[in-house]
Amino acid sequence: MKPKTGAIGIDIVEIKRLEKTSKRWGSAFLNKVYTKRELDYSMSKRFPYQHLAARFAAKEALFKALGEVEKNFVGWKNIEILNDANGKPEVRWHADAEKSRKKRGISGAVVSLSHSEHYAVASAMLIFKS
User: For residue 25, is pLDDT > 70?
Assistant: First the structure.
């Protein structure tokens, strides 16, 4: 049953683990999970893996809110986490994720990201049309 007002998800990522995975699998991993814009943004930062981990956590939080952790997976790169002109993170929906969003009556999503030296965390809330 679809919630009438929204759904939430949360995720936490160990930054060192994501960094090790990225270095082990290289561009194959990065290009599977992140869009070019997400990579460009994160890699431009002093500590890129903090930003990559926060985006990974945001995508996971959104998948949890969608209830698609294991079935009907919309794809890593079909949900994109970018920043608006003020630096606020925003969700961009593409391809299968956009189809799923429309089909479910989701008008949008709000994400919040945070990171420290060791962890990145994100929460996500889906907003349904009334």
Answer: yes
Residue 6's pLDDT band (cuts 50, 70, 90): confident
> For 32-86, how does the pLDDT look when each residue is reduced to its tens digit (9 = 90+)?
999 999 999 999 999 999 999 999 999 999 999 998 655 678 899 999 999 999 9
Neighbours of 40 (CB within 10 A): 10
**Block residue for tokens 């189809």:** 99
Beta bridge partners of 13: 120
Distance, CA of 17 to CA of 32 (rounded, Å): 17
Query: Token pair of 42, please?
Result: 């994160």
Kindly state the tokens that stand for 120: 């990145």
Cβ pair 76, 39 in contact under 8 A: no
Residue range 6-128, CATH number: 3.90.470.20
Domain boundaries, the chain: 6-128
User: Which residues lie closer than 8 Å to 60 by C-beta, 6 or more apart?
Assistant: 9, 11, 13, 122
